[in-house]
Structures are given as C-alpha cells and as structure tokens.
Amino acid sequence: MSILIFIIVLGILIFVHELGHFIFAKKTGMLVEEFAIGFPPRIFSFKKGETKYSVGLIPIGGFVKILGEEYDDPKLPVPNQSEIDGQVGQGGKEGQKPKNYKRRFTSRPKWAQAIVLLAGVSFNFLLAWLFISIGFMSGLPVSVNEFEGEIIEDSRLILVDVLPSSPAGEAGLETGDVILYLDTKGGSDSIQNFSGTGVVEEFIASHGDREIEIFYKRGNETALASLIPKEGIVDGKPAIGVSFGMIGTVKFGILRAGWEGLKTTSSLTIATAVGLFYFVSGLVTGTADLSQVSGPVGIVSMVGDAFNFGFVYLLSFIALISINLAVINLIPIPALDGGRILFVLIESVKGSPLKPKTANWLNLAGFAALLLLMLAVTFSDILKFF
Fold first, then answer.
1. Tell me: the pLDDT tens digits for 107-125?
2. How far apart, in whole angstroms, are the C-alpha atoms of residue 313 and residue 10?
3. What is the CATH number that goes with domain 146-250?
4. What stretch(es) of the chain map to CATH 2.30.42.10?
5. CB within 8 Å of 173: residues ≥ 6 apart
C-alpha cells in the first residue's frame, strides 16, 4: 500500500513540475514535441496538435521534450520531421535554417530559456503553498507556541526529536510519539496535565536518580517506556535525550489560510535550503551524515506513515517533499534545472553557446554524481531496517 501511495505522490509531483516547463515553453513560443509522465516503454500515447502526450511504464520520472533542447551543432541544427515538414529538401544545406528553427529552445531569448527552466521548481513551490493552505483550511497540526492567541484544538505533547543512544532512544521512544503522562516508578509522583514543555523538562530533571515511566501513544496503540535520566545530555541537569513540542490543530478561513500557507512554505523553503547547504558542504569535507537524509526507500515508509495519520498529514508531507525537490533542483549541478540555468547564464555572459561536447560531458558527469549519491542514500535507508 505504501509503495502505491508513493507512486501516486511521485506522479503528482512530477506532473506538476513538468507542467510548469510545458506551459511556459508554449507561452514563450517553443515547440513542445512530447509531454510524458513516466519513462518508456510507453503504456499509451496520443497526439494533440503538435505535441505527443504519453504515459510510461516506469513511474519514477517524466519529461517535457522541447525542440532543440539538446546541445547540437549550432552551425547546422539537425532537423527532424516536424522541422522539415513542408520544406524543400530533407537534409538542408549549410546555413539553411529549418522551418521551426526560431521555435527551438536554444533559438529563443535567454530570458525565455531561464523562465522555462525555472517554471518547474516554481510550480513545485506553488503546489506546496496550495497543499499547506488546504491543510490550514481543513485543520493543520502546528506548534502551539507559533500560534499563541489562536484557537488551538486537540493540544498534545509530542516528541519532535529523539537521540538514538539516549535513555529515551534505548527505551524505544520515537519521533512522533504522543506523551500521555509521566510517572515515577511506584506511582509516588506523576504529571499528565501538560501546560507546556517546560513543566515536563522540569519533572524529568528533578527525578534524575529515579526510574521514570512514560506512557505514550504511537498511531492507535499505547505503550509504556521505563528509563532513568542521566547527566551529560543537557548541561547542568539530568535529561532523557528528547525534544518535546506542544502540538495542536488550528483552522483558518480561506484568506488567512492562504497567507499562513505562504509564510509556512517560505520558512520551510529557507530551512530546507540551509539544511541542504550544510549537507552538501559535508559531502565536500567528508563529514556528511547520510543517515540524516532519506532516499526513495525511506520516503516510501514515511509516505505510508503520513497516510495512516490522515489526509491533512499526507498533504503536508507531499508539500514538504515538493519543497525539497524544488530546492534540490535549483542546485547548480549539470543535469538539474539549476545546472541548466547556470549554462544559460554562462552563455549570456560569453555571448555564444557552450560547445556541445563540453555541455554533454558536464551533464553526464552531473548525472553520474547524482546517481552515486542516490545509491549511497538508498543503501543508508536499507541499513536503517537492520
């Protein structure tokens, strides 16, 4: 079930991304030869106007094929049938420009090329904004501290982070667990009315020499974890190695939901960009922790969990993935939209196209690097199950 949901989610994200490229390629006068979701072999396809629309059997990607998008020899563009239709002579002579030469990607102004390349990630950001706004209209789980003064429903204490080698991690507590109440062994002291995270942290710190029982809920099941706080995790007081958060549900009207959705999308984008920057820096210096990121295998599991929590959680998770895909795509690495935008900027400065051989080799190197990184992250995902 999780795999099916993942495929559907991936299809939505790819469709929206490629739709951005498609719409703006059309708007800027480019000839779009094919709009495809999934990679060949094709399950079915049809042609409407000058564009073929197709669905591929391999549901892990998609593409918009724009005439002249590849780096060919600029002196003699290689014509295909759509270019030479109605033209005298099949091959063309030196200097002769095919019928649709002006509609080639590389023949359009640099600003048009940049807009088309940016359109994909822009549509991913718009999708995230839409889904988060729908979440606010339906009732979205948020941090109580961030929406002080608003009407918060179903407020609860949740673990937002758990250190693996801490007392909490060794006791089996996980991020996302809902804390019902805390009790000392024997029941002499307990706390269950959580007015904030401070009272819980104080309770744990004041019982550093005693075994604490934590009753929690995970999904639809409740469980008990027993542990003893220890020194050294937090300076100056005993702790169990978790971060708490008071989470509740907030609901807004359409205008307020749209505004809060925009602010949340912006803050998530900034946080994602900062996190990605440090991760890439870690890759360069050799200090990156692959266990802190997830590839397809890890995302399949997380999509399933989000679906089990409810529709609003799933929408929020899709929005987060959409933001991550958009930010990653903007990295100036050949084979990504960011790398292609970098090529356009370089060509604008130098006043001439890049050599096809150079551009193609850079794209191949970028693709190989991304593939190796994906394999490493996937291997790390698999190790988490053992």
1. 899 999 999 999 999 999 9
2. 16
3. 2.30.42.10
4. 146-250
5. 159, 162, 214, 216, 225, 242
